[in-house]
Design brief:
single chain, about 450 residues, alpha/beta, FAD/NAD(P)-binding domain, Enolase-like, domain 1, 13 helices, about 30% helix, globular, binds 1,4-dihydronicotinamide adenine dinucleotide
Amino acid sequence: MKSYDLIIIGGGPAGYVAAERAGEKGLKVLLTEHRHLGGVCLNEGCIPSKTLLHSAKLYHYATHSEAYGVQTEKASFNFIPVQERKNRIINTLRKGLSGLMKKNKVDVVTGRGKLLPDGGVEVNGDIFQSDNILIATGSSPAAPPIPGNDLSKVLDSTGILECNTAPDNIVIIGGGVIGCEFACFFGSIGVPVTVIEMLPEICPSVDQEIAAGLRRELEKKNISFHLNARVEEITEKTVVFSSDGKSSSVERDLVLMAAGRTPNTDGLGLEARRVGFDRGGIHVNERCATNIPGVWAAGDVTGRVWLAHAASRMGEVVVNNISGKKDEMRYHTVPGVIYTNPEVATVGWTEAQARDKGWPVRTAKLPMTVNGRYLAEHDDERGLIKIVLHGETNALLGVHMIGGACSEMIFGAASMIEMEVRSDEIADMVFPHPTVSEVVRDAVLRAN
Ligand code: NAI
């Protein structure tokens, strides 16, 4: 029986980053993955969707360039080369990960890992021992029990990535992050899109003014929204939903189910090992430790935060704790991005969350159109930045943005929140000009 310092079940952003860090520290690591290294993020999530979205964005600009004085003719969106490019990128990154595991002397086994009741892990009938086991098995698209969800042309966020022709139209069930990103993709290439969301606004996890701004921007791209609308049934030709006690329907060709994700906890032997979990995921504390000493969990399987970069950080927290360095997750400093066009990027507390905590709160808002660089590059777009400050200490609590490629700016705000920077300190910093990032300082100055 082979023994390791750390056994990791699941080779996604939590698992492979933990393996890399543990390998760097000289730990003997076994990583077990039943499909491809990279998990959902690389194979059927972040990377493929961002690749498709980039092609859609280029097509959108090619067909909306007159405002910038550029005339283009005969722009077309060709699914086959777009998909080939996506697959090439995935393969390149998969190879990179294999190389990284080899470099760090991580043993990778293809197969499903399962905890054994008395310790250790079984993979393909072989038993491996370790004092530390990290469960990083990720999540899968949730399948709400909507009648008709098994009909043809009803896809989830994995199936839709393989789409290689433009549908006549698409109805998206769920106006969350996945729903909005795919709405933007299809809307940008000219496919009529309908989003059906059961809450009063899209993207419930995002500051609602920013979410409303995103909805208005997406409406410019052939996308219509039904809010406060609950889907009741999918038929061969329609999606039926109820709103205000009234039943309505929209015609459909393709349907995308984007109503959340479910942690992958089945078949892991959690019950027999008495690891605490429920439908929301495996229970962990801030050190990513479960109730069983030596059993750790990180990433989507914990249901704490459904983001690849948070998963990777959780993997690092586990490795640090195993190797004697106390480390904890600080979830509120993890930035989130919605890769629509325009993008949404947020970090820290929203105004509503800060007020719920009973803190004195000061906010400032600034339209991005006050910024020269933004105006030069975004003709028909209304970006917004909103900042949240602690009313007494002036600490920066939250930064929430919609506009352009604000994903590339949010790390700066995340660093400031992580370092508990105050608004007067930000006022003393110099930002490069002309960049859109200047709106962060300008919004802070407005609040001072
Ligand atoms: P989500 O939780 O963001 O949104 C699901 C939406 O569906 C909610 O707004 C919910 O109210 C709505 N909904 C649920 N059932 C419904 C029904 N029957 N009828 C109408 N609306 C219904 O989940 P989503 O978009 O599936 O994404 C899953 C997770 O993956 C999210 O937590 C997200 O943060 C993460 N993710 C992150 C990405 C990023 O960082 N860019 C990209 C994709 C996913």
